[in-house]
Amino acid sequence: MIVDRVTSGMTTFAGFDRPSGPAGVRNYVAVLPLSVAASAVADAIADRAGENVHSTPHQMGTDPPKPAREQIERTLAGIGTNPNVGATLVVELGTESMDSDAVADTIAAADRPVEVINIRECGGTSASVEAGVETAERLWGGIASLKRTEQDASELVFGVECGGSDATSGIASNPVVGAACDRLVEDGGTASFSETPEFIGAEHILADRCQDDDLAERLLERVEFRESAAQLMGVDLRGAQPSPGNQEGGLTTIEEKSLGAIVKGGTTPIRGLVDYAESLPVGEGLVLMDTPGYDIESVVGKVAGGAQVIAFTTGRGSTTGNPIAPVIKVTGNPETAELLSSNMDIDVSTVLDGEPIASVGDRVYDLLLNVASGQRTAAERRRLEEFAINELQPNELAQLTENA
Amino acid sequence: MKGKILGNVGLRMSRADNVVTAINDVDAGTAIEYNGDEIELRESVPFGHKIALAKLRPGDEVLKYGEIIGQATEHIEPGEWVHTHNCKSTRGRGDIEDETEET
Amino acid sequence: MSSATDNRSVDPSELTFVGYRRNDAAIGVRNNVLVMPSVICSHIVADRIADTTENAVSVPHDHGCGQIGSDHEQTERTMINLSQNPNVAGTTVVGLGCEHLQSDDLAATIAEQDRPVCETEIQAAGGSEACIQEGSEATTELAETAAASERSENVLSELVVGVVSSDVDPSTRDVTDPLVGDLVTSLIEAGGHVIVTGTERLAAHSDTVGRRADDDQAAAALKAVADRSTARPGNVRNIAHRAADLPLDSLTRAWGDASVDEVIQYGEQAAVAQGLTLVDAPSRFEEAATALATAGASVIIHVTADGIPTGHPVVPVLKITGDRETASALATDIDIDARTADVDDVIRRLAAVAGGDRTAAERHGLTKFAISRIGPSL
């Protein structure tokens, strides 16, 4: 655990050098199923190939429409090029319309070892699990001897998420995570938050912080698009936003939730806005990603965009993690901190007793650097690694073509 | 932390706010000092939930963080609990036709 | 290729199997406790609970959060009816606590259907480990009760069979669907109940699809399903495109000759006890299999030219292909080669699986559970 601010005057962490791009905070072999048809085999391979081999199960179909297919390929390639992934095994059935070569090529172009296993060519489930385990073990062998070395904090892309929110989220956990984001941006890194439906009611504040008018306009368009999803379904967005847990926790409206949610990114100017699973720029300050509010898909989007570490604030006590990036659970609700202590990483409810946000934010930043340097989070210790890819639906696809 | 605690029980995020957030479970009868007046809680309010500081009529804006978080749907007296039963969102209402969005 | 009028050596009303009789007289061919996460965030805990208990299976899915309106209802309906599948002896519902699909409400609804059910929640239990502990204890108790399930001998035609054809490839249309269609006809003639699906393929045929039903209500329901199919998620659009150029009879060959008696929604239970039920679900295997299971199928026949090998946690799946390459490349994952099998072969295989023989998918044990969605994530 190295957090060395003194000697060089720079903030550092201990990470894994990669052949290209920023350093990783973990060193995994990723097993990526190309479609739902290969997902169970990918899981079986990862289960048997050792604790450093992690799969990313999902439910994407074998033959999606083009824009949905592009998003899936982009997400998978993004996971394979995440700095925490040292090598990748792509698993396909063999009849998918998704292009495993395109995914593999993108990963190879980032100078990472990547192989593809085709279930049909292997001769079926059992044979491909066996071949996959052998390949995954070999890929692990190629990266196992990598050691952590001193890295500059500016190489970090820090994704922040809120889930299971309650009133303490906007008052305690989000502000302190925001303070940590400010520290990282000051040290030259990138911080990113997403969950676009949770900008509704607060988007004017974000728009004002955009570094230029074009960006502000794009942001407002994205918020409008997400809000109109409710219109598409002919329903009241309140059914999902705020959720029952949010409401029990004191959040009455989406506006209230959003105003409390946006502070998790800190106070620095917004430098950019990227699409779901699009690459997040390194060393660029605060950058937003347009994702649903649905946590698992949202975290996956940021990890596919290159985020090495995630901080996830929760009032009610979400226990989820991610297979590729460590997820730090931050709660400002003292009851949750106690009841779910084995699933939380830091209790920031001291804010409610008067501890200054900056001071608690510093502790979160220290924790970020320690986790980056190898300290395992609660979700990692319990291997809680949820994964889901956002699938574009026909009404969304129709809207895209209308607006094109 | 940002904001100011009123009467040991209610956190007000901004001076423009007309609600405070309970930082404990608060019993009915508890008093909060506000603008030289004393507001008495008319009902118990759970931790994290909101208490009205001002009188609100249906359609009035509810303000927290210095921003609009919703509209009152009922008459609300100071000291009353403010939540989904008397405060509604003005956004994301796909169930309402002819809605005017402000984006 | 045998036709429905040939004399058969195997009559489904004469073959028997020993099954599990549930309290609503449904007959199951497996006897598992279902560990059901109400939301994606509790699915790993559900998996771990199922792993620690014999005869428990989990149904991990990607939903329960960020869904509203008809999507939320669909997920809820699917879970409730899945708990009533004949192969399910009891259910443990596992929730997180803050999600829209609340685990305690779900468990209460299941209890109202007079099915053994327990419930546990991560936030209430005090964390994931505590929840795994609590859930495992509850599931073990349910499994012990399940072990005492009443068993009875039944004729094969009492088996509720689900059928999904997950593609419209030439081998499927020319070889496999006709074989399966003849099987379906045979089962229904013997008094059985078959559930079929794959409705997006009807989209271009809404004017003629009604003739697959004898009664007006069913005919209208068929037309309505065909009309709705134009706005469906994911890859189903591509099958719908291909199906537009294919004749209706070819697209529904796997449904046999019988007329459709009822059309039900995704996640709904079949109301009829005999005949042909159509459930409105895409041809995409994982989602279709769930729809068939919630409709009440205790065995599924999956027609696949691709050779999609995954099974389903609740229902044994028989994989059948007519594609030469698939039959050869995936020989250990395919149960029946439609190029050489006849209806009798399939009937006998069904009886064997009903009696406890494992399908190819059960042998490798890899399953996938998915629920169709209607709209975008929020």
Question: Could you characterize what this model shows?
Answer:
The complex is a heterotrimer of chains A (404), B (103) and C (378). Chain A has helices spanning 36-48, 66-80, 100-109, 119-122, 125-143, 167-186, 203-209, 213-233, 244-248, 254-261, 295-304, 334-339, 357-372, 378-381, 394-403; strands at residues 12-15, 28-33, 53-55, 85-92, 114-118, 149-152, 157-162, 190-193, 270-274, 285-289, 309-313, 327-331, 346-347. Chain A is α/β, with parallel strands linked by helices. Chain B has a single domain (4-88), classed as Archaeosine Trna-guanine Transglycosylase, Chain: A, domain 4. Chain B has strands spanning 4-6, 10-12, 19-22, 31-34, 37-40, 50-52, 61-64, 67-72, 81-82, 87-88. In chain B, strand 4 (31-34) and strand 5 form a beta hairpin. The model of chain B is unreliable at 97-103 (pLDDT under 50). Chain C is α/β, with parallel strands linked by helices. Chain C has 13 helices and 14 strands. In chain C, helix 2 packs across helix 3 (103-112) and helix 6 crosses helix 12 (343-354). Chain A binds chain B through residues 166-168, 170-172, 175, 197, 200-203, 205, 220, 223-224, 227-228, 230-238, 241, 247, 249-250, 252-256, 259-260, 315, 333, 335, 351-352, 354-357, and chain B through 1-3, 11, 13, 21-23, 46-50, 64-65, 67-70, 82-84, 87-96, 101, 103.
Question: Quick gist of this model?
Answer:
With 103 residues, chain B is mainly beta. Chain B has no helices and ten strands. Chain B has strands spanning 4-6, 10-12, 19-22, 31-34, 37-40, 50-52, 61-64, 67-72, 81-82, 87-88.
The Rg value of chain C, from CA coordinates, equals 20 Å
Q: Uncertain spans of chain B, ≥5 residues at pLDDT below 50?
A: 97-103
What's the count of strands of chain B? 10
Query: What can be said about the biggest beta sheet of chain C?
Result: 7 strands, parallel
How much of the polypeptide of chain C forms β-strand, as a percent range? 15-25%
H-E string of chain B:
EEEEEEEEEE
- Average per-residue pLDDT of chain C, rounded, comes to 91
Termini of chain C, distance in Å? 50 Å
Helix and strand arrangement:
The complex is a heterotrimer of chains A (404), B (103) and C (378).
Chain A: E1 12-15, E2 28-33, H1 36-48, E3 53-55, H2 66-80, E4 85-92, H3 100-109, E5 114-118, H4 119-122, H5 125-143, E6 149-152, E7 157-162, H6 167-186, E8 190-193, H7 203-209, H8 213-233, H9 244-248, H10 254-261, E9 270-274, E10 285-289, H11 295-304, E11 309-313, E12 327-331, H12 334-339, E13 346-347, H13 357-372, H14 378-381, H15 394-403
Helix pairs in contact in A: 1-5, 2-3, 2-11, 6-10, 6-13, 7-8
Chain B: E1 4-6, E2 10-12, E3 19-22, E4 31-34, E5 37-40, E6 50-52, E7 61-64, E8 67-72, E9 81-82, E10 87-88
Antiparallel strand pairs in B: 1-2, 2-3, 3-6, 4-5, 6-9, 7-8, 8-10
Chain C: E1 16-21, E2 27-28, E3 32-37, H1 43-52, E4 56-58, H2 69-82, E5 88-95, H3 103-112, E6 117-121, H4 122-125, H5 128-147, E7 151-155, E8 160-165, H6 170-189, E9 193-196, H7 216-228, H8 236-244, H9 248-251, E10 262-264, E11 275-279, H10 285-295, E12 299-303, E13 317-321, H11 324-329, E14 336-337, H12 343-354, H13 360-364
Parallel strand pairs in C: 3-4, 3-5, 5-6, 8-9, 8-12, 9-11, 10-11, 12-13, 13-14
Antiparallel strand pairs in C: 1-2, 1-7
